[in-house]
Structure formats: C-alpha cells, structure tokens
Write a structure and sequence with these properties.
- The protein contains five helices and nine strands.
- By secondary structure, the protein is α/β, with parallel strands linked by helices.
- It has a single domain, classed as NAD(P)-binding Rossmann-like Domain (Rossmann fold), CATH 3.40.50.
- 11% of the residues are buried.
C-alpha cells in the first residue's frame, strides 16, 4: 500500500518512523488504523512479529517493463516529453515535494523485511529515497527524452463561482488563508 499523501507531518524533515503522524483524510486514517491493527494483533509475548513498510511514490521499470499509467506523474511527464500526450496538468507551481523510491529498491526492502527475524517485535520502516519537486520531475523527464518542451505543463483549472453567487447569493464562507 503506497503511503502517498497520507499523513501530515509538519515537524523536521525528513520525518522518522517514530514521528507522530496525523491523518489528513479518511484514506490516511485507514492506513494508520491498519498499522495499529497489525501491531495489536501481534502481542509481544506471542513470539510473532510484524514488519510494516511505508512505501512512498514507487517508480521505475522492472525487466524493461515500465509504468504506463498516465494518472501518475512520471509516466505522464515522459509521455508529454515524448510527444505522445499533449499536456501535463499540475496543481500549483510545481514546487510541491514528493518522495520517490525505485521499484527495485522496494523489492529489496520487501526481501530484507521478509528475511529479518525479530520475534515478538513490531518494526516500521519508511521506504522512500529521492525527494523531488514536481517541476524537477518534469525537467528530468524532458532530459531523459532529450526534448525540451517549456510549455508542456500547465496549472490546474480553477473554477469560477460567479454565476452561482449572482443567482443564489452563494459566497464562500472562508478564504484559503482562514479555511
């Protein structure tokens, strides 16, 4: 289960496995509850162990087979840079950071977890390795495809709520800074 944008951590970066996590949404809550359930189901005195791997944005190819899911940033940016797709929609200015981990490194982490023997213990590991901004990912994808397409990405479409406001007097109760 990739850990994507599941938890909110506003403390020092990078955050450690033992750092306090605060779920931001129901999906994040379910991830945290699953971890808690696994730890509770394996009491220390039973001799069984639990190893939890928190996978971040998994990327890369295995045996020459890449990820062709265009809903993910790297395949989409590569497709746009190659001219196979017209544009890449980005929310914001591209400065958002994500942590990526190569699929082969995930396989190594899974193997290590399966081979580790800590009877009666619960272990949690963050599996991520390469922080990068969305803009950096787009730039590197362009370099990989040896194409520079400066206008290949655009910001997300923002709604105009004027019509509803005029018709029904609907006005947002708060602004981004206060909401």
């Amino acid at each position: 289960m990739p850990h994507r944008r599941c938890v909110r951590h506003c403390g020092p970066q990078p955050f450690a496995e033992a750092s306090a996590i605060k779920p931001m949404n129901p999906y994040a809550q379910s991830k945290l509850r699953a971890e808690e359930f696994l730890r509770a189901a394996s009491p220390g005195g039973s001799g069984s162990s639990v190893t939890i791997l928190r996978l971040f944005n998994v990327a890369g190819a295995v045996h020459g087979r890449g990820d062709d899911d265009l809903s993910r940033i790297i395949p989409k940016a590569l497709a746009v840079a190659a001219g196979q797709e017209q544009r890449l929609q980005v929310n914001g200015d591209g400065s958002a950071l994500r942590d990526f981990v190569r699929v082969s490194d995930v396989a190594d982490a899974l193997t290590l977890a399966l081979d580790s023997d800590h009877p009666g213990e619960s272990q949690t590991y963050n599996v991520g390795s390469t922080p990068a901004s969305v803009a950096e990912i787009i730039k590197v994808c362009g370099e990989v495809k040896r194409r520079s397409r400066p206008g290949m990405w655009c910001t997300a479409d923002l709604p105009d709520g004027v019509m509803l406001s005029r018709m029904a007097g609907v006005v947002p109760a708060c602004e981004a800074a206060t909401g």
